[in-house]
Structure formats: C-alpha cells, structure tokens
Design a protein that fits this description.
Two copies of one chain form a homodimer. Chain A is an all-alpha fold. Chain A is built from six helices and no strands.
Chain lengths: 113, 113
DNA sequence: CTTTTGTGTTGTTTTAAATCAACAAATATC
DNA sequence: GATATTTGTTGATTTAAAACAACACAAAAG
C-alpha cells in the first residue's frame, strides 16, 4: 500500500481469482458459524471495515488480517502446506539439475539459516 | 496499513508461524530457481525491499505481494484449497445443526451472492 | 409497527507501508 | 588477486491503508 504496487493495482488473473475465492470462503465460513462481521472482526483484532475488505478480496490488505481471519475461524491449518518445499517438484528438479551456469547463485544454504 | 492492527502488531503464534514458514518457503523456491531478489521482485511488480520483507514473514505486507510471489514462482495453485467450504467440516456441521437460536443470522444465502 | 442488529457507503484523520538513494558487506565470477 | 552481483541497512519521502464517525437501508425480532 501506499505507493501502490503494480501487483496490488492490477493483479494477474490467477492472483485475483485466488483473492476473490479466499474472500468468499471466509465469508461462507463466517456465516456458517453465525458470526457477524463486527463480532468476528473483534476476535481477529481488526475493524469491521477491514473484514469487509477481506470478504471482497481486497489486494492491498495486510496478509496478517487475512491470516487472522482464517485463524479466528479455525481454518489456519490450510495454510501450512502452501509453497512447501517438499511439494515443490519443479523446484526440486531445478535444484537437482544444477546446470553449470544458470544464474549467479550466491548463498550456500538453500533451506534457510 | 497505518493505524497498525493488533493482528499485525502481535499476531497469535499460529499466524506468526504460518507467516515465517511461508516466507522461508518462498525464499527456498526462489533460490532453487536461481533468481535474485531484484529479478523476482521485478517479475512480481514490487521492489526488492518488499520481497525481503516477504521472506522475513512481515505481517503488514499486502497479501497481493505474497500471492504475487507465489504466482511468479508457479506456486499459486497451493492457495486454491485454502478455506474451501467443501473441506470445512466444522462449518458444515454447524450449518447442519441449525440450532434455534445460536446468533442473529441475517442473510438468507450462505454461499455467496 | 417498532426496535434491534447487520451491513454498505462516504468522508476525514492518522500513520506506517512502499519506494528510493546510498552505502556496506557478502558472495560469486573472472 | 580484482570485479560484478546480491543482499542488508539506514534515512527521507510519498501516499494510501486502517480506523472512525455518521448516515442509510435491510432484515430479523419484539
């Protein structure tokens, strides 16, 4: 936000779709649990306006607000596998390939620190 | 965000863990693909500074930036199942239960519009 | 009908997110 | 060794996200 990024101003279709779907899913989960926006927003620690933005799939909203919604709804577990290195088959192949000069590669460790 | 939300200032452990893990996963995927921060950031449409924040798991960064990173790395598909109503067993049970007075319930439709 | 609750909208204020520049440090490449 | 690239950090600027108030409307409850 602020100095709004290109990715937020006009996200690629794939990102926009995920965002809209996520917002609708959060709304569905809220209604199923018979929670009002105000009620759920309070549990998350945000205002009802931000929760409304989330349900609309607003791109510029802080990721913590989205994750907080999932958490408050008991759905945060769904995030655990996202981008899991063990499931990143393409990445594993690229790593295994290790072609002599694909790019500058600088860090010795790949996993973390 | 400004007027920093409680959820961003001090996220619950579950949210913080997901955030840190997600950042590390994105970093791992980037390194496997031998992309520099600047290179990947350009593809995403953000600055290298924001990508650095993402890899650190910064809570206040726009969700579109995170999703853009996943998209640019070919990992956006992992987001499609998050909070999927079909998988929300607890929500389905609550909906089926329909106890006489659990909350004010206001909207007729539960799925979307 | 009246009251209550939930939601949508608009405008205002606050304030920190995103960017950029410049430098230092680390790593890779030659 | 020297050079190029990547990354980290710090400080300054820009600007829109988040909160808030106030209103209207819808739907449910009395």
């Amino acid at each position: 936000m602020t100095r709004i990024s290109k990715i937020s101003k006009s996200p690629p279709a794939a990102v926009e779709n995920v965002l809209n779907q996520l917002g609708r899913n959060i709304r569905t989960a809220r209604l199923r649990r018979k929670l009002s926006r105000e009620n759920l927003a309070e549990r998350i620690g945000i205002s009802r306006y931000v929760l409304a933005d989330i349900e609309k799939g607003k791109p510029t909203t802080a990721i913590a607000a989205y994750l907080g919604a999932l958490w408050a709804l008991g759905l945060i577990r769904d995030m655990r596998e996202v981008a899991d290195p063990d499931r990143d088959e393409e990445g594993k192949i690229l790593e295994r390939a290790r072609s002599p000069k694909t790019a500058p590669k600088r860090r010795k460790m790949d996993d973390d620190f």
